[in-house]
Amino acid sequence: MTSLIRFLALSLGAALAMEANATPETEEALFDTITARAERLAESPYRALANEQPAALAELDYDAYRQIRFRPERSLWHDSEGLFEVQLFHPGFLYDHPVALNLVAPDGEVHHLPFDASRFRYEDDAAHLAELEFDDLGYAGFRLHYPLNSGNYRDEFMVFLGASYFRMVGRKQGYGLSSRGLAIDTASPQGEEFPAFREFWLVEPGPEATRMTVYALLDSPSITGAYRFDIAPGSQTVVDTEARLFAREDIAKLGVAPLTSMFMHGDIAAYPSDDYRLRVHDSSGLALQTGSGERIWRPLSNPETLHLSSFQDSAPQGFGLVQRPRHFDAYLDAEARYEARPSEWVTPLGDWGKGHVELVEIPSDSETNDNITAYWVPERPLEAGQSRTFRYRLRTLGVTPPHQQLAHVIRTRQGWGAIPGQSDPPPASRRHFIVDFQGPTLQGLDDDQPVAVRLTTSSGDILEPRVQRLPDGETWRAAFRLAPEGDAPADMRLALTLHGELLTETWSYVWYPDERR
Fold first, then answer.
1. What are phi and psi of 379, to 5 degrees?
2. N or C terminus of the chain with fewer C-beta within 10 Å?
3. DSSP one-letter code for 270
């Protein structure tokens, strides 16, 4: 049975191609066809695809897999007059569930893309693979190229590889955080479910096109989905996304537009003495714009135990994982170049109703592990047999989210709340926090302006709050001490105001006294 399932999955593109060759479809009709497939799929029990790749591929280690190199001259659309081309990933190593790929020609005809070993070079530890003959394995994934940084070279700017993961960059950025098609039961006691894209349709752009479209079919034990990605690379790469979802089972926690990243240390988080780098992270904070318009900044942490934070909202205007600061001296890593990692922002297109943005922070001892994720959780559950559509825009960016004029947090630090030389120092649990802001609303303010701090905490006492302009003339600092209430977490919120008007985004942070991080 599993062989039949795998055959059907990998040959489905060919079946659709035959239908399309008879009657070419418009793109909207193609999306409707994929949507109908997802709906039918949800009406039948889930059947996992068996790992039936040849043993020679399954046994590859990391180093050997890296010796399989795609031939750039064999890129899809390489010899066309258009701006885009596509390179492919070979199955093997960790990528043991290949996907089926289909090409959509300008006239609407769909052609299945069979696996072709001649598109690859097998070098060094992978050289023995060149002697083998492979059936239509499918591909592990693909990457999109476009003249992003130079008019003479098509740069890689987006990659779909593994489950429902994809990554993208804007101009002069390097890969960092990832997006996913969907998150199911993340950080739940029953364990997380990882939906996967099983099949893709790549629409060939026209000669002068600066956008391209990718369709995808998603499948998992609990849900199926049809996805459309309208992709526009640029200084800020933008992906307009539509997800049409169909539930097989009741879903306890549906995570929409999930972002996944890495945070080891930096700023407020504990600094390891054996690392010369000041910061190690792909993202430094979660940014939100609520339905009421409030801008919120939550610094990330690498906790000692799993942390879940929920930001209740209605009709959110956006959220994202952001990388601050963006200069080399803040990281000192000449290889990883963390300062060039992209930030990513999710803008709902339409009213998403009530729900919450959930932030998950997972303890980690390695920068190779993603330990941060954020997504939207609708208040209304998705039950078996129901369907729902979400439309949103993904955008790469730098320091601040789109259209933000309020000053933003550039730095958060904390330490023991004692005064140097104090004869009767407070307990080590008392903490001294500083939060520094920069931005348009603070520029040109004299230091005698009555800038005030708006500061609250859910537990403990706030002591000695003060605001001052720093010597650079551009940065304003809010400082205070926190006397925790035993081990009770302190959920703090802070913003700067002038004559009652907000000057800054709202700094939001939860201090866990028992962790002392």
1. -65, -40
2. N
3. P
